[in-house]
Amino acid sequence: MTNLRTQYTDVEAYMQSCMNDSAHDLEHVYRVLNYALAIAAHEQQVDVELLVVACLLHDIGRAEQLADSQKDHAQVGADKAYQWLSMNNYDEQFAKQVRDCISTHRYRSEHPPISLEAKILYDADKLDACGTIGIARTMMHLAAIEKPLYVLTASGEISDGSESYESSLFSEYLNKLARVYEGYHTQWASAFAAQRQSAAQGLYDALLAEVRECYALNNVTELQQGSH
Fold first, then answer.
1. pLDDT tens for residues 144-176?
2. What is the topology classification, in CATH, of domain 129-228?
């Protein structure tokens, strides 16, 4: 355990030097690690050392993706993790396994996780997109990339996000957040996610209703019409 703690400290310090994204911050990493360890406690023959390192480093490629949207943070982070581990005297096979875990952790990906540790990381990361915290993190992300809470349809109505996939909170909810309650690889994660679904749906419904209620007052519309 002492060795694992020493490794944890070194890996954590490297991770902290890479993180500067509000929605994918240090606390997101620690929540994912907590989820992963909870999942691992209900699975058999988990390589905890591998899992811990993969969790700590899973989002270190976020800065590169934020600077260039064509880059995949999962692949960038996987390569960075492999290089750092190799330069810091980690076993080659271990570095490759960490790389594989990180490269397949992304929800929107054509490359599903294969190893048990990769599946746990995938599930743990997706759990942090569940419930109201998933909506809160999405708000933070949209603010960082200067995208709106909501958009209007061609007819001037508040879009619920279903008309087209425009970058807004409501479209992100319908196209991603509402779907993170299925497709888990572990039973514990699936059951845990289900507990948070109604709260997320309730928050989405309340936000949409409040915005639409405001626009239904028509005060601004009347002023705009009177100016012509």
1. 888 999 998 888 889 999 876 678 999 999 999
2. Methane Monooxygenase Hydroxylase; Chain G, domain 1 (1.20.58)
